[in-house]
Amino acid sequence: MNLTTNGTFPRTTEKTVTEWAKLIVPITTDVKISWNGATAETSQKVMKGIDFEQAVTNVKEFIRIRDEHFAKTGYYCRVTFQLTFMQNNMHELADIVKLAAQLGVDRVKGHQLWAHFDEIKHLSMKATPESILQWNEYVKQANEAQEKFPKSNGEKVILENIIPLQKNENKEIPDSYECPFLEKELWVSATGKISPCCAPDEMRKTLGHFGNIEITSIEEVLLSNSYQTLVKNYKKIDLCKTCNMRKPN
């Protein structure tokens, strides 16, 4: 299982982060922790109410349990910092890579802000030609940090989807960019609804209807006309033309 969490490890059941980690680590291949900055000031501006220092402490403890489990069993759960690339936090991207290395986080990945609301469009790194150039500079800095700050075992932090933007990428994604989900992953909601990707719900509906896991098997979804048509034609669909999840093959 892959898990995405905001890293707060809820105390509603009176479990500590240590207890959560002991439950999660043995059954996951990758745990993505939403991360918004390398400092408390930036992190708390992006995610209201987050206690940055506590979040760092939680990551340290989670990785301690991960490493302990790996030493005993040989089973490794990768830990990832999951970012949203925005103008109000990416000035700290290189420092996030450095922090990841210090903590033992394996991977830093993320995606450009999917700005579907006018109120947040100004935060997109694709907003202007100048912001695109600024993002490309942040990418360069992140790669330098990856080289300069390895993890304690000497391995580099993996950088994923931290790639330069093209000049016209604020309009449409290059046609050569591929969908990372089709024929690789399916998304199942808490109610059992099956979706081909993580696009916002209302927009996702434009891609088709794929059933509910309670009555439809994964095999049936993958072989259905709706799914096969999407696989063949997604690059022609308006939503997919602007999807920030697509990336170079």
Features:
7 strands; 12% strand; two-stranded antiparallel ribbon; 249 residues; alpha/beta
Description:
It is built from 9 helices and 7 strands; from the N terminus they run βαβααβαβαβββαααα. It starts with a strand and ends in an 8-residue tail after the last helix. It has 249 residues and is an alpha/beta fold. The mean pLDDT is 92. The strands form 2 sheets. It has a 5-stranded parallel β-sheet. Strands 6-7 form a two-stranded antiparallel sheet. A hairpin with a 5-residue loop joins strand 6 (187-188) and strand 7 (194-195). The protein has helices spanning 17-24, 40-46, 52-73, 93-103, 129-148, 201-204, 218-223, 225-233, 238-241, and strands at 2-5, 30-34, 78-85, 107-112, 158-160, 187-188, 194-195. The chain is globular, with a radius of gyration of 19 Å. Helix 1 (17-24) crosses helix 3 and helix 4 (93-103) packs parallel to helix 5 (129-148).
